């Protein structure tokens, strides 16, 4: 994939210099170029799942067969603030661990999150942007 296209896709995540981004579910199949680009944009290393309680953003690598997506997203919601950005990365069709992005949206709703965007990230990954649902007063 052309580097300028990769940069454009990751910039759509909305991360900014100085922000802290927590990463969950990273494995050998996670896209190194994407991870490196997020670190280049923020100027900080990605933190692991036990990192900062209220990060500015989260990258969650989510695959079919690796646990209940609702539970994973509930845990993410507990770590988020109203301003946090959450991007769920799922393998595309015909890739090991493929998880339908609509299943992510369904799980998100049950976890108190709503979809705010979708980015076609790379050859192997889809990205679904989520935020905490606004609570009515």
What is the compact description of this entry?
It contains four helices and five strands. With 137 residues, it is of the alpha/beta class.
Considering DSSP H and I runs of 4 or more, what fraction of the residues is helical?
Answer: 25-40%
Span of the ends, CA to CA:
46 Å
- Average pLDDT figure: 87
Number of helices in the DSSP assignment: 4
What overall geometry do the principal axes of the alpha carbons give? globular
Instruction: State the total count of DSSP E strands.
Output: 5
Largest sheet: 5 strands, mixed
User: Which radius of gyration do the C-alpha atoms yield?
Assistant: 14 Å
Regions with little confidence, pLDDT below 50 for 5+ residues: none
Describe this structure in words.
The chain has helices at residues 3-11, 32-42, 69-79, 101-110; strands spanning 21-24, 57-61, 85-91, 113-120, 125-132. It is an alpha/beta fold and 137 residues long. Helix 2 (32-42) links the parallel strand 1 (21-24) and strand 2 (57-61). Helix 1 packs across helix 2 (32-42) and helix 3 (69-79) crosses helix 4. The protein is globular and about 35 Å long. The termini are far apart.
């Amino acid at each position: 994939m052309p580097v300028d296209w990769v940069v454009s896709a990751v910039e759509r995540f909305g991360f900014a210099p100085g922000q802290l981004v927590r990463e969950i579910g990273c494995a050998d199949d996670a896209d190194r170029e994407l991870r490196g680009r997020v670190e280049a944009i923020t100027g900080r290393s990605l933190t692991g799942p036990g990192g900062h309680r209220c990060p500015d953003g989260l990258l969650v690598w989510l695959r079919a067969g690796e646990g209940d997506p609702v539970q994973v997203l509930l845990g993410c919601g507990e770590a988020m603030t109203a301003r946090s950005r959450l991007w769920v990365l799922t393998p595309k069709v015909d890739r090991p661990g493929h998880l339908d992005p609509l299943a992510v949206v369904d799980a998100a709703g049950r976890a108190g999150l709503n979809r705010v965007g979708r980015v076609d990230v790379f050859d192997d990954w889809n990205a679904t942007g989520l935020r905490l649902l606004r609570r009515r007063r």
